[in-house]
Amino acid sequence: MKKTLFCFAFILLNIISFAQGIQFQIKKSDVFKDEYKHSSIVLVEDDGKDGVVIVRSYVGGVFSSGSGYYFEHYDSNLKLIKEFEYEIKYSKAVRQSSVLGVIMDGDKVNIIDFIYEKDQKAYICSAMSSNVDDFNFKKTELFRVNSDEIKQFVFFNSGVFDGDSGASMIVNENRTAFAVTVDIKDKNAETHRMFIFDKSLQKNIDHTFKREMKDRKFVYENIDVSKDGKTIYILGKVYTDEKKKKKEGGKYQYELTSITSENEKTQVFDSDEHFAASLKTIVYEDRLVCLGFYSDRRDYRFKGICYFELNPTTLEIKKVKYNPFTEQFMVDKYGKDKDKELKNISFRKIITDQKGDIIFNAEEFYITSNYFSNPYGGGYTRTIYHYDDIVSARINPNGEIVWARNINKRQKTDGDESYISYTSTAVGNDAYFFINTGEKVRKLSNDRIQFGQTSTKRSNLNMIRVNQNGDFDYQEILDDKDNEVPFMVSNGVLSGDSIFFIGRRGTKKQILKVSL
Length: 516
Description:
The longest helix has 8 residues, at 327-334. By secondary structure, the chain is mainly beta. The protein is built from 2 helices and 38 strands.
């Protein structure tokens, strides 16, 4: 790995802060340079000795083609102990390839890839495995699918599940097991081949999931793997002829299917007279919950949060709740309580706390385009990505909203969105949000505030805390003028009670650890 350290430019920072009652600790690595400009953290694992192993994926640019992973072992003070670069290379017989994800088993790292071997007429899923002490990678085949079984080969990002085509990898919440799904050719039915492996690469499930209907009428919402790695849960949104006849509410139903090595079960439910355009599942402890926003008017308008709890073994529906946004939430959003439904809300993350409550996080996201003409009869279109208000709600085990808050924020970009939006987590009973902002926090009416625009050239790192009662405070934890690089706050990776970010300005990079 071609890396240059700026040892004198930035000395290791170790700060403990108690400002406004928020206790946190910050540590930084030395500033360094990689051969490749663009990289992001994909995995952080504790090494059992107060240090961490950080895995970063990289891609080349116009003048430096290539892709692969940086493996870096840091001690408790983020001092680099060892590093290794793994460049992804395939033989000429490989016609299509993709790395689906990375998972660790103790001090062993596994890179999971999916390739098309033309000579063997097969798509092969393999693990490239190595101990972090020597980085001597060896290949193990996990499974293969004949090429004539594959409908179409399109790869998706690691952790993303899509019903159209391709292969995807999904890792369970405690990172003890993962699933790989492959779309199978079938003109009359939605069909997927699904595999589950534990982190030591032992196969637990090999199952073909089939729904007797056209692909376009069965939309995959998401997939989850149980904590023990023995069950896979598939949530689908289904458009049936029967649901088309509904007079009120969404003209679709949801189907939740559980698959084990012994059987397959499916539970059907819908949103009755409401609209619920999308749901997300969460599997934790002994609970299986589907959450989403709902409306009384139409899809993609949002009045509140709907909650469906099912028995994780039998799939019996235990609770159904429709919680309208609270008065406090509407005041946060509009400055006064209004009978109004929201739009442009995009799901971000589901978190659980130590009480068993669910923290459901989203963001106001939308895209605008403007055409700019020039005097010579030509012009160009500029597309702007807007990342505005943070939406967060705490749901108790009865499916009821404890609190819902809207944190006013205005951010936009026509380039790299890594420095805007936010990363969230929960420690104890408190929810935390990390965002980059400008210099000043704007005051709004009714004792509200708004976090403003940031840029890659000027980004102050702020932390927002919402306690178990829904009260929030905030603190600037890093000022732009004290940093050599701004940090990519939308790409934070959680490890224990710490969040890791990578920062970049030009070719300079730095790792940041924030412990709560």
